Known about the structure:
Blueprint: E1 2-11, E2 14-24, E3 29-34, H1 40-47, E4 54-60, H2 67-70, E5 71-74, H3 86-96, H4 105-111, H5 124-136, E6 142-146, H6 154-169, E7 173-177, H7 181-187, E8 190-195, E9 198-204, H8 211-230
Parallel strand pairs: 3-7, 3-8, 5-6, 6-7
Antiparallel strand pairs: 1-2, 1-4, 8-9
Helix pairs in contact: 3-5
The structure holds adenosine-5'-triphosphate.
GO molecular function: ATP binding; ATP hydrolysis activity
Domain ABC transporter: 2-221
Pfam family, one: ABC_tran
Amino acid sequence: MLEVIDLHKAYGRHHVLRGVSLGVRPGTIHALVGANGAGKTTLINCLYGLESGFTGTVREAATGRPVREIAGLVPYEPYFYPRLTGREYVEFCLQARGRAVPDLRPWNQLLELPLDQYADEYSAGMKKKLALLAVLVQDFAYLILDEPFNGLDLEANLLLKEILKRLRDRGTGLLLTSHILSALLEVAGEATVLVGGQVQRHYQAAEFGTLEADLLAALHGEKLAQLGALL
Ligand SMILES: Nc1ncnc2c1ncn2[C@@H]1O[C@H](COP(=O)(O)OP(=O)(O)OP(=O)(O)O)[C@@H](O)[C@H]1O
C-alpha cells in the first residue's frame, strides 16, 4: 500500500498540507477530491519525491521503498523538452529507469499518437496521452494520475476509464485527481476529500451518494444560504 501519514507542507508561511493521511491499496482506484488550491498536486508531488521540506511519512508500506521507484506519475501539466519526438520521450522515460524499450505499437494503436512528431508541439490532450503512454508501457505496481481526463476528448475519456478499470482489476493501485467528479466516482472505489489542505473525510464507494452534497455544503455553505433566499 502507498501510505501518506500526517503530511505537512508549507510554502513560506502558507501551510498548504496540514496533517494529511491516506492509503492507496493495490487493486483499488483512490480518488483525491478537492477545490482549486486544496493541495492535491502538492500532496502528489510530496508523495512522489518531487517536493522536499515536508514532514510526515510517504512510502510503500510493505517494502519501505520510495514511491517513485514503484509508481508511475502522469503530472498535471506534462513537460516535454523541445525537439524531442513523442517516441524519443517515451524511450527517454524508460532509459532513465534502466528499462528496455518495448514495442510501442500495441498501446499506441489505442492512443493513436503521432509518435514521430515533436511532443512539445502536441495539443494538450495529446500531451496527456503521451504521458499516459510512457507509464502504461512500464507495468508499474502503482499509478498516480493528476487530472488524467483533462484535455482528453470524449472517445479518449471513455477509453481511459476502461484502461484504469482493467489496470485496477489486474492489481494496480491508482491514485487519481480530477475536477470531473462523475468520471472520478464512476471508476473509484474510495475517495479522500481535501479541504484547505486537510482531509475532510475518507469515503468508501457505498458512501459516494452523499459526497457531492457534502462537498457543496463544505465549499459553498454560505452561498447555499444566499441561494436559498433567491430560489
Ligand atoms: N511552488 C509553490 N510555491 C508557493 N505556493 C505554492 C506552490 N505550489 C503550490 N502552491 C500553493 O499551494 C496551494 C495548493 O496548491 P495545489 O497546486 O497543490 O492545489 P490543487 O488542489 O492541486 O489545485 P488545482 O485543483 O487548482 O490543481 C495553493 O494555494 C498554491 O498557490
